[in-house]
Amino acid sequence: SMTSVHSGSRSSKTFKPKKNIPEGSHQYELLKHAEATLGSGNLRQAVMLPEGEDLNEWIAVNTVDFFNQINMLYGTITEFCTESSCPVMSAGPRYEYHWADGTNIKKPIKCSAPKYIDYLMTWVQDQLDDETLFPSKIGVPFPKNFMSVAKTILKRLFRVYAHIYHQHFDSVMRLQEEAHLNTSFKHFIFFVQEFNLIDRRELAPLHELIEKLGSKDR
Hints:
This protein has helices at residues 4-7, 26-39, 43-46, 55-77, 113-129, 146-174, 178-194, 207-215, and strands at 89-90, 96-97. The protein is mainly α. The chain has one domain (56-215): Up-down Bundle (Butyryl-CoA Dehydrogenase, subunit A, domain 3).
């Protein structure tokens, strides 16, 4: 069943604190809806905007959820992702990422994968905690730039999946987390495809895997 994605199988160790959606809120109901439809096993259907719902809110809830999933997946392999094992942030030999967030670090810096992922996840967390960007209260409108912020977050979260698949898949297999990783990534990809949230060029490091996941589901 698909629910293991959310119950977090064996390792409940997260890399950063989990981001909680307030219980009793509409977003919490949406998250519950998302989990229930995931349980049906039809991911293409599960990612669709539920009838009558606000697109921004649906994207917000799922972005928080993906942050939590990736947080947990990366948490399982942090001991294998070190300054010496991963001196650069890469996704295979052809793709290397340099960090910049446009505010604290304006000029992209070359750094190790653990450092990059720390910067990245801290940055995402700061966006998710910003009530002006991700309002948790009912009736507070999303800002005009919400969609572009969400796209940047998802584009960056993708890089963590890409790094795990390219550099740490053997560890994931040893830990018997591959089903968990594949399900989470497939859910992520179907979601970003449904709403056109990540440029195809950005997805290139996992192009073959994405093709494979898509073809099994048509």
